[in-house]
Amino acid sequence: MIDFHSHVLPGIDDGSDSVSTSLTMLEMWREQGIPRVCATPHFVAERTTPARFLQKRDEAFNELRAAAGDGGPELLLGAEVRFFDGISAADELPMLCLEGTQLLLIEMPFTRWTERMLGEITEICRRGLIPVAAHLERYLSFNPKKIIRRFMDMDILIQCNAEFFLERRTERKALALMREGRIHFLGSDAHNLTSRAPNLGPALALIEKKLGREAVERLLRVEEKAGFGRESVPQ
Ligand SMILES: [Fe+2]
Predict the structure, then answer these.
(1) In sequence order, which residues have a C-beta less than 8 Å from that of residue 194 and are 6 or more positions away?
(2) How far is the CA of 212 from the centre of ligand 1 (A)?
(3) Domains of the chain, CATH where assigned
(4) pLDDT at residue 229, rounded to an integer
């Protein structure tokens, strides 16, 4: 199973503050049996350029890899791209996709979404890219159900955070969406070792307990379809 969303790379955004923190985060994933983790630092177009972002990301990745050695989990490089006006026309979008894929993790605005915003997502799909909506659960309170449903019916994939399942007040909603097959990827969105630590393992255990092994298998099939392969099946 892949952790699709994390801020594990050191010193690049508000995630891990040091190589040592990142190493402990990797250890936590290992203990939870998570073989692959997407490193998705924030990309904010107003603050940096894609070229500068990618350079900083590579530096952080190389530093971490040198310190981590060969032990797992495997890191895949991506970005959490903050929505901005004109995003659909940005030439560099393919460079910000998760490595080896057309999957683009997008952080939607924390406001009520407009037609123009939804139109930009449609345009990104037209370019042949596959938007993945980061932590959909965080937008449920900003938008009427009708808008959320329309959004989910677009040619996009949905990522939800582990905490959506692990928090008592949202567990039922999370399981309902999972049961409906609306959630395609899970992420810890891990930033640190405390308040936002790697927690995909406990979420997967809860999903399997409440919905059965088939729910986990379905997530693995989505990964396979996206080109990640079965070697990510947890042992
Ligand atoms: Fe994030």
Answers:
(1) none
(2) 28
(3) 2-228 (3.20.20.140)
(4) 63
**Order of all β-strands in the sheet with 2-3:** 2-3, 36-39, 74-77
Mean residue pLDDT across the chain? 95
Query: CB under 8 Å, gap of 24 or more: what pairs does 27-33 form?
Result: 28/193, 28/197, 28/198, 29/3, 29/72, 29/73, 29/198, 29/200, 29/201, 30/71, 30/72, 30/73, 31/201, 32/198, 32/199, 32/200, 32/201, 32/202, 33/1, 33/201, 33/234, 33/235
Separation of 105 CA from ligand 1 center, angstroms?
9
Looking at residue 227, what is its pLDDT? 82
Mean pLDDT of the region 180-204: 97
**What's 117-133 look like in SS3?**
HHHHHHHHHHCCCEEEE
**Distance from residue 141's CA to the centre of ligand 1 (Å):** 18
**Which one, of 143, 176, 138, lies nearest residue 160 by Cα?**
138
**Which residues lie across from 104 on neighbouring strands?**
131
Tell me the CA–centroid distance for residue 6 and ligand 1, in Å: 6
Percentage of the residues of the chain whose pLDDT score is greater than 70:
97
DSSP 1: -
Cα 115 to averaged position of ligand 1 atoms, centre (Å): 24
Pairwise CA distance, residues 181 & 177, whole Å: 6
Measured CA to CA, the distance from residue 216 to residue 3 in angstroms comes to 13
Q: What would the pLDDT profile of 62-89 be if each residue is shown by its tens digit?
A: 999 999 988 889 999 999 999 999 999 9
Interatomic CA distance for residues 179 and 60, integer angstroms: 37
Instruction: Give, for 157, the enclosing helix (H) or strand (E).
Output: strand 157-161
